[in-house]
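Notebook entry, cofactor series.
This is the third protein in the set we're modelling with a bound small molecule. For this one the ligand is zinc ion. I'm keeping the input format identical across the series so the outputs can be compared line by line later. Sequence and SMILES below, as received.
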Amino acid sequence: MATILIPTPLRQYAGGQSSVDATGSSVSEVLASLTSQHPALKNHLYNDEGRLRSFVNIYVNDEDIRYLDKEKTAVAAADTLSIVPSIAGGAA
Amino acid sequence: MSLTAEELERYSRHIMLPEMGAEGQEKLKNSKVLLVGTGGLGAPLGLYLAAAGVGTIGLVDFDTVSVSNLQRQVIHGTKDIGRRKLDSAADTLLDINPNINIVKHELALTSENALAIVGAYDVVADGTDNFPTRYLVNDACVLTGKPNAYGSIFRFEGQASVFATEEGPCYRCLYPEPPPPGLVPSCAEGGVLGILPGVIGLIQATEVVKILLGIGQTLAGRLLLYDAMNMKFRELKLRKNPDCPVCGTNRTVTKLIDYHQFCGMPKEISALEVKAKLARKDDFVLIDVREPHEHQARNIPEATLIPLGQLPQRMLEIDRSKLVIVHCKSGMRSAKACTLLRESGYPNVLNMTGGIDAYPAS
Ligand SMILES: [Zn+2]
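Returned structure with ligand:
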């Protein structure tokens, strides 16, 4: 089971949890396991065409999957996936 | 400019650092740093950079101090409520260090003014709170070759990095596109732990000083994530994206663009939609920029009359935190008013198309 770290803005769609364990041997499988546990996340991770949204980056450990094998990137049980969306707050 | 006797004493704890010395302190004195925003992140940035002896600090802000700012914007005090943030911040910084020079830019950064302003500084620290300005600051920094000490916060979580160095990635390498409006809540909607911007702002300040002195390893190429709730720092690798539209090999963005449009923010709303919003009692402000005699002849009762000519003086009557919809007779004057409001830092402004002529009689 890989661990997925859920960022603050998305925790409300993951039952308030900051991390979720999910099965799968690739990024797409692990994310499918995540969204089947928490269906409300789906719309926030994927666009209508089913592609990962461009303001949501996925990391396996500390590497951006865009520079690995994208969603086919292999995931081992000891790996940690991070979902890192853009946040803009600062002044207000 | 070399250091005075008072400055040698004031900065003695810096000067005894072998990595800094009097030479490094002089570098800081001759440096210019632009702080975009004097709010949550800008407050600690300003306080510590002023104390550290950064010779010129430029401040960009157009807001006034309100009581709900004071939970985190420690550069302002209770006595400053209602004052311009620029004045309040400058007073605090000059009290800490009268040797420095504060440049006040009372405006919102726009595609028209950003290159000239950013170009006049050595390093930028981005502490804004909206995506259009984030992308504007990034692109202006890349185009002028100025490093950007980046920080961003949400509730209990923060991000920091250094963008737009010669070799390193930029904000667009990390996030090519902004989220559509409404999908990601702002701090004003989502709340923020008041101490959080202190932590992130001081990470930005540390990076600014290191960049100015050319010492240490900056966050260029790394994204630092801070989780206050679990008190965890994590680090992710950032790469310069060869396909980045602004810093990549085949760049398509070679000048500043319309960042409201880029961020998918509509600029117009139909008169019918406005009527529906009023019927639903949605939370927004409706401004009529026609002349009093036109208003007398026919008006929308919920609208506030501020003739276009009076708008610059009376702008403070309009609540910046709300959606502002502007109308006139046919949509021309209100379009001008919308531009004026956006340039004055109103983030959420819509022009009612067709004016009151298109508004259905009840
Ligand atoms: Zn880039």
